[in-house]
Amino acid sequence: MSHIELRTFTEEEYHDFFRSYEPDPLIDPHPFVYDPQQIAVSYRYNHDGHRENYCHYGIFSDCKPVGSFQLKRIDPERKTCEFGIILQNEQVRNHGIGTEAIRLGMIEAERFGMLLFIGDTMGRNKRMQRVFEKLGFRLREIRHGGFRLPDGSVDDCIIYEKELS
């Protein structure tokens, strides 16, 4: 596997990521249309301190932006946080990059003093469920019909958690 790292995107790297972004068809079957102005607004929103209890990172493989990783709903009192991850396209999915990014994200969460790391996925996303199991997460809850998809259909929201040291 190539060298994977999490670090803050530059604005140009953020644009590079989205120029080649293709949604996972399990989540959104609609094609993504790159809009430079929309991506610039998104970059500022995610990186200029507008979001509380939130950290946004780029996932880089051999210095190339291939994903987006977020620590979100960071709760310093309860010492919990959730995470989100998006990989760029099918060329980078299913190669261990997401698994390694989540492992690195757990290290970041520990650096912030978090003791519980929470993630969720859709019932149909068996690939992500295997990642959670491989990384030692335990099933926390299943919310039947908890995800509403862009086409109006619903899927279960499966929530996992992992205790950090």
Record keyword descriptors for this entry.
single chain; 165 residues; alpha+beta; Aminopeptidase; seven-stranded mixed sheet; 7 strands; globular
What does this structure look like?
The radius of gyration is 16 Å and the shape is globular. The chain is 27% helix and 36% strand. It is an alpha+beta fold and 165 residues long. It has helices at residues 11-19, 36-47, 97-111, 126-134, and strands spanning 4-7, 54-61, 64-75, 80-87, 116-122, 138-148, 154-163. The mean pLDDT is 94. It has one domain: Gcn5-related N-acetyltransferase (GNAT) (Aminopeptidase, 3-Layer(aba) Sandwich), CATH 3.40.630. The protein contains four helices and seven strands; from the N terminus they run E-H-H-E-E-E-H-E-H-E-E. It starts with a strand and ends with a strand. Helix 1 (11-19) packs across helix 2. Strands 1-2-3-4-5-7-6 form a seven-stranded mixed sheet, sandwiched between helices.
The spatial strand order of the largest sheet comes to 1-2-3-4-5-7-6
| Mean pLDDT across all amino acids | 94
CATH superfamily: Gcn5-related N-acetyltransferase (GNAT)
Can you tell me the overall shape? globular
Helical content stands at 25-40%
Radius of gyration: 16 Å
Can you summarize the main beta sheet? 7 strands, mixed
Task: Count up the helices.
Answer: 4
Unreliable segments of 5+ consecutive residues: none
Q: What class, by secondary structure content?
A: alpha+beta
State the end-to-end CA separation: 26 Å
Order of helices and strands: EHHEEEHEHEE
Number-wise, the strands total 7
